[in-house]
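Work package 3, deliverable 3.1, input record:
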Amino acid sequence: MKLIDHSRVLNHMKPRVSFNIFFRSLFLLATLFGLLVLGILLYRIISQGLPYFNFQFLQNLPSRNPEQAGVYTALIGSIWLMAVVAPVSLILGVGTAIFLEEYAKKNAITTFIQINISNLAGVPSIVFGLLGLTVFVRAFALGSSVLAAGLTMSLLVLPVIIVASQEAIRSVPKELRHASYGLGATKWQTILRVVLPAAIPGILTGGILALSRAIGETAPLVVLGLPLFLAFLPRSVFDIFTVLPMQIFNWTSRPQEEFQALAAAGIMVLLILLLLLNTIAVLIRNRYQRRY
Amino acid sequence: MSETQTQKSVKGNNDTKLVYKTNGLNLWYGENHALKDIQLNVVENEVTAIIGPSGCGKSTYIKTLNRMIELIPGVKVTGEIVYRGRNILDKSYPVEELRTKVGMVFQKPNPFPKSIYENVVYGPRIHGIRDKKILDQIVEKSLRGAAIWDEVKDRLNTNAYGLSGGQQQRLCIARCMAIEPDVILMDEPTSALDPISTLKVEELLQELKKNFSIIIVTHNMQQAARISDKTAFFLNGEVIEFSETDKIFSNPSDKRTEDYITGRFG
Amino acid sequence: MGDENVNHSIQDLISKKFKKKRAGFSFERLVPILLFITALISVLTTIGIVLTLIFETITFFTRVSIVEFLTAKKWFPFSETHGSYGILPLVTGTLKVTGIAILVAVPIGIASAIYLSEYATEKTKKIIKPILEVLAGIPTIVYGYFALTFVTPILRNVMPGLEIFNALSPGIVIGIMIIPMIASLSEDAMSSVPNSIREGALGLGSTKFEVAFKVVLPSALSGIIASIVLAVSRAIGETMIVTVAGGSTPTLTWDVTRSIQTMTAYIVQVSQGDVGYGTTVYYSIYAVGMTLFLFTLIMNFIAQFVSRRFREEY
């Protein structure tokens, strides 16, 4: 007794196969859409910004006159910001990761810290701005300074570094640790001399990812009250300053075409900075790549 | 009905009963020549066992028979495999049609993460059968055929992952039978099972061969001797010997076959 | 013989050092405490955010009633005498933009995920995934610039009725921004479906499309839903794209062609202006921030719940 009519099954085959081919193309198109947008975006920025993008642009102060305007203060400001965010977020992030991976017992507190970190990663950046405004700018009376912005940004990118460092630490094989313990090393010696060196590529990659995020962010800095327009450089971390995304935001919001072209040129500077950072990340990854 | 079928398969004019005819099949994984000039014929309603040490190409060969091998990147195949008169290695042969006629049971049970019922009706459904009554009939028939009906009839709607390994494998056999294939390929179907489950699957094979042509890869020689009509011995990608199972195990004509069967290597 | 002597002296050296270090051993005990303190910073950050929002929001509610905040249909804070603080228009703006973004990102993101996990070769994957990562790493202000100077003019050519600032353009661009997020998280979920299950389906004569839709998608559903929920949360919290291209007119309408204001854009607008510390407007950004925080918090909890509760065990 046959329950299946095989001639019907065969008739049904053709539309199914064509369906598959049709959807395959559709899925491919969807995938290419992202690439297309990236292409258009870059083309648009370069074609608009190139006329303004030159050495003068990097050295000039912002100005009302588009021909003389430059990103000098903003670029230096972004570098100041990185100088604060990098050490602070790295120390806090790696410290937390070591604690969670090496020392913490599997208890309610650890679980809570872990859940808290993943929730923190989902908090909108502008809310971190409100925290920074209340705590650093007002309560600590730091004003719209490099330090206030740097600390706020460090907290913002903290989850990224913690998660990346945890993964890096976790991927160090147990055997390496055991070898160190077997020689009579203490826990901290083992972590410092065996685990961390082995985990460094992962940690630094995560750190640079976090740093990229920090120098591209705008929203929290607006809330902290960073000026959109500043004609002098900070001399210490307590001075007021501005950063590239703020300068780009300022130019983008102006209706005149010249300023929008300036915004494009500013974006080129920002993207080049990000590209440099990511190149460093790739180099580090290749340089320290270890095989176990 | 089963009586007449077994009788049919005993002897007759072989040409009409030929299911698979493999001719000069060569296969490479990149640089590695995994199958060398394979010649092998499979006859209807017989169990053909393929034995050999691991890495001899037996799994590769059975996966070529339904072109599952294409899933592995970097595979190159030459020669021909004629199934019911058509060369399946010809790219114009729709692979979906081939796999509808040639079912496969895998090494490890791989039920879908769905209910038992949904697992069985998956095949019929994709082939356009929607009638609930027919689907219900198919489910009962297939599960009975796979000797698992009594164990699961009261929980058809529970997740297949709640079954034991042996039950899962029999469910996979039922899933395969549900589209009433012509041939069933089995790639070491009992290698992941405990002895009792293995026994149940073997008993099931004895029943299945009344209705299907079966090609089974096994690393277990006793299993091949117990269940198959013909046996092919593979070594280093070549067919060393292929004949009636009784002959292979009692009076092999090649020294290497004898060495393997008597446990001198492998 | 000589070897034994050397061994002895090394062991002696070590044991001497060991005795000296005894005092320093408390350092071993100090380290976990120091590390615990760094771990507490992340908890303190959350507590800081919650307390900041709660205290300043309470101050706000001493001046504006919570009923007005939740039910009034107008958001018009800058008038000394006729100020109106109804959050609904801001929420509407946020939801409109988020809705458009999801309509763009979900089909494209999931289609890309299916392509990458079910059809693409390893080689193609190796090229496409980094490009998606680049797309995800572009600063939002750049997307804002793109929305205002490129997408909006194109849309206005097609739809003459579209205002310069509108919900459509930033919605589409946010959608583009979250495509990589949905694509990569969904792809992770689909790739974790074991290959043996795919082979089972292919062995029954399924096309790859059937494998994707009838076997892989249902199995990976929890991961896919979680990725969408997280993307919604991202879209709700997105600030610069809507600030630059969305406008600053809070309106209670579902019309996507008109100028809007989202919760985030309002916070930016107030921060940019010279609103005095301690004014009602100043406190209003915390109340809006609180609302925003609650929205995203709920989304994040849903995402975590879905991916934990419905995880498939293979």
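The beta strands of chain C are 75-76, 84-85.
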